[in-house]
Structure to design on (80 residues):
């Protein structure tokens, strides 16, 4: 099973993360995650400093997700 591995260099404004909506939407659209699952993954990356691994439904979906995430500032993504 393909996996998307990503991390985010957070841009925090107090207790709020700035610039993560596109990351959340990309995870939803490319990997079929629910909003709550996508948000939880992003929160782990931003607030816990975690390198997050998310299963992808296919190798193609993983490639598309990594390509989309790689265009976003402060996000590092690869297929794991």
């Amino acid at each position: 099973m393909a996996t998307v591995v990503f991390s985010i260099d957070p841009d925090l404004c107090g207790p709020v993360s700035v610039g993560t909506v596109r990351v959340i939407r990309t995870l939803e659209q490319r990997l079929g995650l629910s909003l709550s699952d996508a948000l939880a993954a992003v929160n782990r990356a931003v607030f816990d400093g975690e390198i997050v691994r998310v299963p992808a439904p296919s190798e193609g979906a993983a490639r598309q997700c990594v390509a989309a995430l790689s265009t976003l500032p402060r996000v590092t993504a690869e297929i794991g």
